[in-house]
Amino acid sequence: MDIERFTRCDSGNGQKDRLLAEDGRSGPVDLLQEALKLIQDPYHIVTFFLIQFIIVVPSTVVLLLAQWFEYEIVHKLVLQPPAPPAPWPDMWVVFLIFVLLSVSSLVLTVNHVAATFYTAGSMYSGQNVTFKQVIQALPCLSKKLIITALWGHAFFIIESLFFFVFFNGLTSIMPVPVPVLCVVTSLAAGLTFFFTNSVLQLAYGVTVFDGDDCKGVAAIMKGMCLARNQWCTAFGLLLINDLPGILLGTAFTYSMVSVLDVFSKCLIGGFLVLFASVFRNLSSVTYILFYFSIKATRGEKINFDAIADHTQFETRYDRWVGCLFQLMAAFPTLSCEWG
């Protein structure tokens, strides 16, 4: 599946829209190879580089810190609570830190998804896109994506609670060996993540390209329809894209709770964050190609015009940047006056 094998269809406004040509080879490896071609495109390699280090890396840092904090809560407050007379931490502070990390992780992840989807969509519509244009498009796209992301996380929480209640009820009725319980719990958690993540990634594509009305629950339901008969490809993407990132995130958590000195933790953690961010960025680009390939398989046109109109924000963006530069220019004058 290659850019040169795209077919063109007339859109309603007379422009040409690109669609992926269905040639029967849009498997996980093909999608990954095409994603690598996009990221290494000579006209957009700088744009992807800036997205990687300005948007994806901070998002990955906050996400891994949130996972580490959740690990600390579970193991130090739930599984091994402080024994008297050891003092408990201030639970309000713990709760506020947890909420802050969770909200920050969600917002930064949505911005990361918006940036990669906008860039890939612009490239596939035949347009060159700069990092400034990506930043300009973020608020409009993120406003829609945050609703879909919240509903996706809500479904994930509901599924997790269902399995939690089910296994608690099962263990209360009949004794289950610990190894069997661990295996079954791990499989249930893995299937929950696989289903939710696959549908949510397709729902992101629906939210970005299918108009303003397709967001939230509507986007997730349409994502489920798109995922039908595509679970083998989705599972392949999980193995080659998401699993390495999950393992790197787990390694980050264990490196933070290890007995290493602070410098070693920061050094190892920095490398793990960098590699995890690379896989996250590659995963987002691959999933948008997955969305494109499914639309082509179903014979549906992709509405690239949905991401083209961001002029409303552009005026506010230019005004904000202008005010920022005015403040920066006025700072030396103010410093001299105070001096």
From TrEMBL:
Membrane-crossing residue ranges in chain numbering: 45-69, 91-124, 145-167, 173-195, 231-255, 267-292
Protein keywords: Membrane, Transmembrane, Transmembrane helix
UniProt entry tagged with the keyword Transferase: no
Domain of life of the organism encoding this protein: Eukaryota
Protein name according to UniProt: Uncharacterized protein
Upper lineage: Eukaryota, Viridiplantae, Streptophyta, Embryophyta, Marchantiophyta
